[in-house]
Specification:
Number of strands: 7
Order of helices and strands: EEEEEEE
Structural class: mainly beta
Shape: globular
Helix content: under 10%
Oligomer: single chain
Radius of gyration: 14 Å
Distance between the termini: 31 Å
Number of domains: 1
Number of helices: 0
Length: 110
């Protein structure tokens, strides 16, 4: 699924996506696939900053996250933050189908 719009800023090395359409899981995640290749044969780390500007229920709703272990647009892992319940979740997307995992960490309050 393509996002409604993607704005790329080379100056800040950032992507802004508009994901205000579609339904889960039929339409999949709104996602940006950077062109940088990671050597998955060796350990690697990602550093990201996520900002949720607005969600379907306001700024405190939505599921911002990051994809990794990317094979193609239908096969990857994703770690995302469920704002409404303050929980990190991990999923695998395998041939477009989500494989759910238990929440990784819950936060007490905001």
């Amino acid at each position: 699924m393509a996002c409604v719009s993607v704005t790329i800023s080379e100056a800040t090395n950032s992507y802004e996506v508009n994901a205000n359409h579609g339904s889960w899981p039929a339409d999949g995640f709104c996602r940006v696939i950077p062109s940088q290749v990671v050597d998955a044969a060796n350990p690697y780390s990602l550093t990201v900053q996520l900002m949720n500007v607005i969600g379907h229920g306001g700024v405190n709703s939505g599921h911002p996250g990051v994809m990794y272990n990317f094979i193609d647009e239908n096969n990857f892992d994703v770690l995302y933050f469920r704002l409404i319940s303050w929980v990190f979740l991990k999923e695998e997307i395998n041939n477009k189908l989500p494989i759910y995992h238990f929440p990784l960490e819950a936060f007490q309050g905001q």
